[in-house]
Amino acid sequence: MSVDKTTVAKIARLARIAVPDERQGPLADELNAILDWIAELDEVKTDHVEPLASVTGHALPMRDDVVNDGGCVDDVLANAPESASGFFVVPKVVE
Amino acid sequence: MTNLVQGRTGEWEVVIGLEVHAQVSSQAKLFSGASASFGAGPNEHVSLVDAAMPGMLPVINRECVYQAIRTGLGLKAKINLVSIFDRKNYFYADLPQGYQISQFKDPIVGEGMLRIVLADGTTRDIGIERLHLEQDAGKSMHDQHPSKSYIDLNRTGVALMEIVSRPDMRSSAEAAAYVRKLRSILRYLGTCDGNMEEGSLRADVNVSVRRPGAPFGTRTETKNLNSLRFIQMAIDYEVARQIEILEDGGSIDQETRLFDTNTGTTRTMRSKEDAHDYRYFPDPDLLPLMVSQDEVDKLAAALPELPDQIRDRLIDDYGLSPYDAAVITEERATALYYEAASAGQDRKLVANWMTVELFGALNKGGKSLGQSPVTPENLAALVGLISDGTISGRIAKDVFADMFETGKAPDVIVAEKGLKQVSDSGAIETLIDDVMNANADKVAEYRGGKDKLFGFFVGQVMKASGGQANPGMVNDILRQKLDG
Amino acid sequence: MSDLLSLSAVEARAALDNKDISAVELTTAYLAAADETASLNNYVARTADQALTMAAESDKRIADGTAGLLEGVPIGVKDLFCTKGVASTACSRILDGFVPRYESTVTANLWAAGGVMLGKLNCDEFAMGSANETSAFGAAINPWQGPDKLDLVPGGSSGGSASAVAARSALMATGTDTGGSIRQPAAFCGVVGLKPTYGRCSRWGIVAFASSLDQAGPFTRTVADNALMMTAMASHDPKDSTSSAVPLQDLAAAVTAGVKGMKIGVPKEYVMDGMDSEVTALWQQGQAWLQAAGAELVEVSLPHTKYALPAYYIIAPAEASSNLARYDGVRYGSRVEADSLDGMYEATRAAGFGDEVQRRIMIGTYVLSAGYYDAYYLKAQKVRRLIKNDFDSVFETVDALITPATPTAAFPVGRKIDDPVTNFLNDVFTVPANLAGLPGMSVPAGLTKDGLPLGLQIVGKAFDEASLYRVGGVIEAAANFTTTPARMAGGAS
Ligand SMILES: [Mg+2]
Ligand SMILES: [Zn+2]
Fold first, then answer.
1. How far apart are CA B268 and CA B284, in angstroms?
2. What stretch of H or E contains C75?
């Protein structure tokens, strides 16, 4: 499995990172170098092996249903590049 | 009954599956301590976790988990003791994390079933595929500014149950019945307030059409319908649109569509459409969600009686019609009112008075059952007066109108207005004699064989009694005297 | 003031309690040291006023006998930790100007124990790197130098932390370790670094790189100091669902407990081509020291070791691609304006993320994307299971493992690498412990013939940090590592 410029463009779009055309080729090479090296894993026999997502032995801890947060609009908006009357502001979204 | 739709080139079968997003009734959000309630100012119900500030982490709300389990139990579904939270990755202005925490491969609730009752009283069982917990998104407002959108994260992170049906529905009416019934169960359980106007209950409808017996056609998904009417309109529009395309030799694109409430039509959704690839993977900030069978059993034991159970009781034990039973059990409050009003009374008579007179009056007065001036006790008393012959059904209607007007007890009204039925045979005989003397000619005609006149005499006697004479006795005595 | 700088944290605590020195004096000395060594670029923000205020408060508490475990100890904080009212940027342009309104649990624990905050330390952007060369603030420099006097990398990603502790511009420093980001720089800079068991230190308030691997840990000059700092850092945090409630052991006692009767495993797979012969020699030396101290050395096998690195370079970027989605120019950090929302996202993230971060986001996005998930991400998670199983089985027979910390000593800044994979190899010995969630410690144990420090790594059972401090204490004593770096504060005096 090796990526070409089209794939790079598709991934860049999914990741919302603008990649200029002239960077797509070099980036494809860099990604392929990593992917080729990763392909080493194909040697490992993993049928009937349970994937491991989390190493902690314990189950998910649960919180009580109490309201003890929020009500801090100032903190929420403090670092916003643009905000107005309590809202975050972004370029117009078309649905 | 079959629901085939007649097209130009033959009949089509409609196939409908629903994904309902129901907001979990809880104080706080699914993964943060911010309030889940509606109606706050912009971003007031937002924690730093909801705003996805760097380094913020989710911690799950136990009550939301229990609400999902209660709902699963109410849908007779399999509860999965181990379930997994995944990240659904996509960029959107009202999705601060850049992913929605949801359950993809291993939901908390598996297969279940929901029974719907159609207008003709017949029932259909609709399969439930799964129920999973996930985060709601925030709100983008597009009309505040010509070139900007405004973002409010108050809804961000509120707990939702996504309840996915099997493609078992065959008409928009069935789809509406399904949502109505699901809403009813959620409200009985108290796991969702079912308020569709506020958006606590939204449906995505998956619609396709096929020739009868053919394999499934390509489906479209119309998102975020927040009223039963819109659900039916959207489905009917999609069915017509798809049949027309197919009959013109075209094909349906599998796509997400938006419903335009103004035009009642659906259209392709432009944004979020390109390169759908959600890259689900288990959320590494969370561990497998585990509940014990013991916890599930405790929740099951505490479950209230559900509409189907009550409905069966009303039909089997009280002899109500399936339709009346369905109407009375749709809302828990109605069922409770009925139980109170019909205790120790003629159950069917009470059901009639509730569904016809009471609901009629409430609708006219624009009142809810909760605001009814007629208490269950008073309705019970009224039916009691009818049953024991104190008043006739006709008088009872007047008494009821008065009760609805004044909230008074029926016996009080009957006493005040002296509406008590006359069942004293002597008094009735005098009335009859007067009527016969006053109409000697008609008596002769009757005795001459014109027995159609009997009704005339009954009417005259009842009139003379101001409607209070016991109609049964009037009949018997009249017949004796005329024929005798 | 170099005499103040030469005190270990344990010594400084005693001197403070005896009123031989004051916290303000000690802090002033460290602020001056940071000025003196500013050319190492290991601080990205200094909080001198806050430091002196905190030191003054420490002196009060010492006076009325309410001193905490770290009372008056000057500490530097990796810029990955969110610190209330102090810019926290993960050394990325995309977090330019971000000032949190909250304090990470780990740093809050340190301040609650009386620690004094000196400032924020340089690191690789979003902790992605092994040389501290991807930082938006430029490379941090290793205070050590070879004969050629070239600037050397301090390692990474916690390069600024290792550099500052080695250069004596911080008495202690926090770091984070996702694939070796504490242990590798500790080795390159000749200091002690611990990556605790996953779940020991809360991740709340730390900018996330790869959530299932990230762990915060302490940098110190001595093993005893490290035990002291770790004791203050660790806590069970209800705000972090992956935080553990397993009680911390008595680490201070472990430092001097010795290794008599311990079984220590030597994994035969911890060798690779391109590995310095000096590294192998030091590894054998370390084994000899432990044997002499009464430990039993056993050769063990971790057959899947060579697959740890490729598995890591699937799992870590996958998680990172999702964790970094929140940096979108909407709620904080920098924004590049555009007339559509997506245009704004794409321009902001292209300008805000450096090349290495972009590369890893791209890889992570790719391995999770439709059609590749099973071949890459799921495969890596299965290999991760096999690697954990390897450790589980050897830990049935041994108490700890000893391995080299890094395949080489520190290398020059700006060393040109066309193949990105070469950089990854720095972490070959450290990554397996992250995948298995196990604690690992790097202890300075010797010098190369060029006079550059080398470290040995000790890996232990989950939640058994005590064994690492026992072994670490013995190695430290045996190695008697007293040489100091050329570009150390007060070094001239
Ligand atoms: Mg949907
Ligand atoms: Zn959903």
1. 35
2. strand C74-78
Report angle CA C250, C256, C257 to the nearest 5 degrees: 70
Stretches where chain B sits below pLDDT 70 are 1-2, 270-275
CB atoms within 10 A of CB C404: 27
Taking the CA of B19 as reference, the closest ligand is 1
- Report residue C358 CA to chain centroid gap: 23
Task: Give residue C194's pLDDT.
Answer: 98
Q: What is the model's pLDDT at position B1?
A: 47
The rounded Å distance from CA B134 to ligand 2 centre is 7
For residue C349, list chain A residues with Cβ-Cβ distance below 8 A. Answer: 15-18
- pLDDT at position B378 is 94
Record: contact C353-A17, CB cut-off 8 A: yes
A45 and chain B in contact, CB less than 8 A? no
CA B90 to centroid of ligand 1, rounded, Å: 14
- Rounded CA gap, B322 and B121, in Å? 6
pLDDT mean by block of 10 residues, chain C; 493 residues: 86 97 98 98 98 98 97 98 98 98 98 98 97 97 96 97 98 98 98 98 98 98 98 98 97 98 97 88 98 98 97 98 98 97 97 97 97 96 98 98 96 81 87 98 97 98 98 98 94 54
Catalytic residue among C22, C104, C181, C235, which?
C181
- Provide, as residue numbers in chain B, all residues whose Cβ is less than 8 Å from the Cβ of A90: 93, 140, 148-149, 151
Count residue pairs from A and B with Cβ separation < 8 A: 146
**What is this model's ipTM?**
0.97
User: Of the candidates A54, A76, A92, which has its C-beta nearest B147's C-beta?
Assistant: A92
Choosing from C78, C120, C195, C461, which is the catalytic residue?
C78
Distance CA C452, CA C437 (A): 30
The reply to whether C321 belongs to the active site is no
- Distance of alpha carbon B424 from its chain centroid, rounded? 48
Of C242, C332, C338, the CB nearest to A79: C332
- pLDDT one-digit tens code per residue, C385-441: 999 999 999 999 999 999 999 999 999 999 876 677 777 888 999 999 999 999 999
In chain A, what are the domain boundaries?
5-43
- Tokens 């599956």 correspond to B17
C78 is catalytic: yes
Beta bridge partners of C78: C121
Chain C positions touching A30 (Cβ under 8 A) are 359, 420
Q: Which of B52, B107, B102 is nearest to B281 (CA)?
A: B102
At A81, the amino acid letter reads P
Q: Is C163 a catalytic residue?
A: no
Does B54 sit within 8 Å of C241, measured CB to CB?
A: no
- Contacts of residue B279, defined as CB under 8 A and 6 or more positions apart, other chains included, come to A14, B87, B89, C321, C322, C365, C368, C369, C370, C373
